[in-house]
UniProtKB/TrEMBL annotation, chain A:
Gene name in the database record: sdhD
Keyword Metal-binding: yes
Pfam families for this protein: Sdh_cyt
Residues passing through the membrane, by range: 46-69, 89-107, 128-148
Subcellular location: Membrane
This protein's name: Succinate dehydrogenase hydrophobic membrane anchor subunit
Gene3D superfamilies in the record: Fumarate reductase/succinate dehydrogenase, transmembrane subunit (1.20.1300.10)
Role according to the record: Membrane-anchoring subunit of succinate dehydrogenase (SDH).
This protein's pathway: Carbohydrate metabolism; tricarboxylic acid cycle
Source organism per UniProt: Streptomyces johnsoniae
Names of required cofactors: heme
InterPro entries in UniProt: SQR/QFR_C/D (IPR034804), Succ_DH_anchor (IPR014312), SuccDH_FuR_B_TM-su (IPR000701)
Biased composition (Polar residues): 1-11
Amino acid sequence: MAIDTNGSSPSGYGPDHPAPVIEPPRARTRRTPRTTRTNFEMYGWLFMRVSGILLVVLVITHLMIQLVLDGGVSKVSFAFVAGRWASPFWQAWDLIMLWLAMLHGGLGLRTIINDYAQRDGTRFWLKMLLYTATVFTVLLGTLVIFTFDPNIS
Amino acid sequence: MATPTLEKQPAADTGHLVTVTFRIRRFDPERSADAYWQDFELRIDPKERVLDGLHQIKWEHDGSLTFRRSCAHGICGSDAMRINGKNRLACKVLIKDIADVKDGVGTKPVVIEAMKGMTVLKDLIVDMDPFFQAYRDMMPFLITSGNEPTRERRQSPRDRERFDDTTKCILCAACTSSCPVFWNDGQYFGPAAIVNAHRFIFDSRDEGGEQRLEILNDRDGVWRCRTIFNCTDACPRGIQVTKAIQEVKQALITRRF
Amino acid sequence: MTTAMQIHKYDTVIVGAGGAGMRAAIEATKRSRTAVLTKLYPTRSHTGAAQGGMAAALANVEDDNWEWHTFDTVKGGDYLVDQDAAEILAKEAIDSVLDLEKMGLPFNRTPEGRIDQRRFGGHSRNHGEAPVRRSCYAADRTGHMILQTLYQNCVKEGVEFFNEFYVLDLLLNDVAGVRSTAGVVAYELATGELHVFQAKAVVFASGGNGKFYRVTSNAHTLTGDGQAAAFRRGLPLEDMEFFQFHPTGIWKMGILLTEGARGEGGILRNKDGERFMEKYAPVMKDLASRDVVSRSIYTEIREGRGCGPEGDHVYLDLTHLPPEQLDAKLPDITEFARTYLGIEPYTDPIPIQPTAHYAMGGIPTNVRGEVLANNTDVVPGLYAAGEVACVSVHGANRLGTNSLLDINVFGRRAGVAAAEYAATAGFVDLPEAPAQFVADEVERMRDATGNERVTEIRKALQDTMDKNAMVFRTEQTLKEALEEITALRSRYRNVSVQDKGRRYNTDLLEALELGNLLELAEVLVFSALARKESRGGHYREDYPNRDDVNFMRHTMAYRETDTEGNESIRLDYKPVVQTRYQPTERKY
């Protein structure tokens, strides 16, 4: 008994050969995910909020000193940096700022990649690139802060 | 004499009808692998619902247009869909409110498509199974221990009020499928599941809150929420969805510290 | 190529996942291997639309007992109620409410933390003395809460659902001369495949059939699929002429505005602002039973006191109630008025008209939920509960809040009885080619090239039912309706659908549903013609009085097919069970 009275469409699809449907990314499976019983996600979420607030203070103060006060940006030179990093206080300030900014920014970018990268492969490689860049920047920055030599020629 | 009101049929009185274009995203895997847009021009009373417009198309123009519906007044949750880019129940949106009618003609087409982030099976019908799976993962039932009382469990009106908002959920999926996080990661439990967890976490009679919080504390839980408020906007029952999610987050943080 | 078919085997199969179906499933799943077949996702069922509450003589806020509740039920049903069943309903009401509370249902509470109760139409203290607070409620979404709570407990019990499976046929087979239940045939909407479910016990809980009226509070999906399947297989339908018209539906749309609105103090007014119910029911006033209020509204309209330019509705006035009370107790219906009418209920009265609401009749069962094959014998293994069934606890007119009670009390009973039966009984052999009837029907419908459209026939059916078989009926209007339906049934044979596909073919489904509606509308009108009296929801203008001598009995309608294949309806009658309350005149 013929069912496909509407004839086979030019696409070749019909009641017996339906076209594939498009699944959304990462559909929920029948299995309930096992809980890890850790607070990692919560600490991650809290870290983003707390570091955000700290960064507002750190970065605005940093920008004021660097760009506005005492003659503005023209004062910044090798000597100025050397003078600042002679003090452990400013060393710590810049170190915290570097770490928080990189982790905060890195985690934020990770979220954006998760949201916008459609394919698993793209997502994986973009994140690898991000992690590499973050680790490299953090390590290099930390190295510079601690090994800065004001007498270099 | 028969039932009186119905003898005076508004016979050929069509002066109040307006012309509105419905632009619908069609998909039928038995015909083509590609979805496409189709326009229908309707003569319809502007006070009718979008669902009435869909019915008019199905009943008078194209019987193959497929969508779910049942109660037609916003309590069964069958007909959630994307109307002019926002998730709405087709039976709760009136034509006059979205078609921008001027001089008897709708100046803007009513654009209708299936909910996002879910597998489209045909026209406006999506696969609801993953959505209900997320709901079931929340253990959405009263968990208690000890012997049952002979009469009812007591609960003060204030305790009852605490979770009233989230008991209104009809599981239509309008919130979950309006969430950008969910669009990109279907393993996120989504607002609807969290709303239903909230309903029990904050029920003074329930003792399973800890287990639900544990699930929601994990990777696919509440921490994925970025307070975008799409869900609150989409909820046809007026539930403060984002607020409910925030309350669960708060419960998790205060539990820890 | 024929339609694909699969066979499943379950102890108990439940058809429908509304209140009654899920209540039965919770019991049956604990006791037997159970499948629930539902044409909608469970939480879409129309139980969710119930607003007002669920009656039970808890006596939480004032003196009350289940005997008064029994009396109110019997009187409300105009004495056509089987009193043994009404007694069970009222007695088990208390435990059903408490069970739901223990399952997690968030009832509104009294200051002491008990379940709060409010007044409702027809419920009275001490046999009609004054209104009593008996309805347990959760704002004005009690049905929604019941549906959600029952689904939640189905999740807890691990009930196996087959969602969007549409049951089209009941399979019976002879066992030692007795027609016994073999299973059901279902159509899977997603794929268009047929599934035969062989089962020891089948519970029908597929809901009502109000969609043959145009102005109705019923969902699009309430098309009497269960009643029609049983009827086609030669089983009787009881008291189908009794249909309830709810007094307060939104004008023209039929969307329900709960009786709870009047329970909270809402008043019905005509165009002169008069509280007209004082004339018709001096004691209960706006809270008289639904048939009385619906008739009073239409009497006002017919005598020229209706509101609006057409004079075709009256007002439900809530404006004297404080907005806080409306927000707390009636949030949903005030929102309906705003959404669909653009009216602010704080300040403006709401236009309403009676709306087709509830089928008192259905598949006849006894108090265990067992389906009757005639006045005395049961069909082994077949059960029914909820609106699809007729126990009969509602008689000629159902009291408000008694349907949520019915689904819980008799849903539970049917679930237990079905599972217990399945535990001892064996499988009945499937008839030869079990799905043939349905396969032929489905394929005929899909391949048909006739020029009749489902829409036109359905519209004609709804028009004639609204015009001729609603609140007021006469011999003449009913005959007109019957002729029209007979004509529509022959037109229906030439119906064709546009969607020829197999996946999610809702076009085909609507055509099949129309077939059910036509079948049941004919039974309603045929039974109504024969009942030459007025009783409860059935009001004959040519016979305006109740006639206990000739009609104190239930109608039993059977489908008969002669040797040439011509179909007709045969009516029989069944005595009413009376225990304690003798029929008296019914006044409110």
